[in-house]
Write a structure and sequence with these properties.
This protein has 2 helices and 5 strands. Strands 1, 2, 3, 4 and 5 form a 5-stranded antiparallel sheet that branches. The chain is about 30% helix and about 30% strand.
Length: about 110
């Protein structure tokens, strides 16, 4: 079943930009401009972070593994323009939705 899944990627980059809102818009625009529709990107949100920018990719995907694969493809496609502006994509990882629980049992000794 296809669902919208959220994947977060951290971009390391310039720490003190004089126009943080402009940077967030630039990163968002670069990713949108270099992402084909086949990658299932529905929405993205950028947020300033201590070491650069966090990007939240909202992806239409059949599974968590597919969403991570799509996120890698999106970041690979935008890598050159992001680097041209001083940003380096990190490893994307799955973001859990509020109230979402892991399928793994709790560590031993914990309820």
């Amino acid at each position: 079943m296809t669902a919208v899944r959220v994947v977060r990627a951290s971009l390391s980059g310039p720490r003190a930009d004089p126009d943080p809102e402009g940077v967030l818009a630039l990163v968002s625009d670069l990713i949108w401009a270099h992402t084909p529709a086949a990658h299932g990107l529905e929405h993205l949100r950028t947020k300033a972070a201590a070491d650069g920018v966090d990007v939240y990719l909202f992806l239409r995907a059949a599974s968590e593994a597919a969403a991570l694969t799509q996120a890698h493809a999106i970041l690979d496609g935008a890598r050159a323009p992001l680097r041209a502006h001083g940003y380096r994509p990190g490893e994307p990882r799955r973001e859990r939705s509020p109230g979402e629980h892991s399928d793994r049992p709790p560590p031993s000794g914990r309820p």
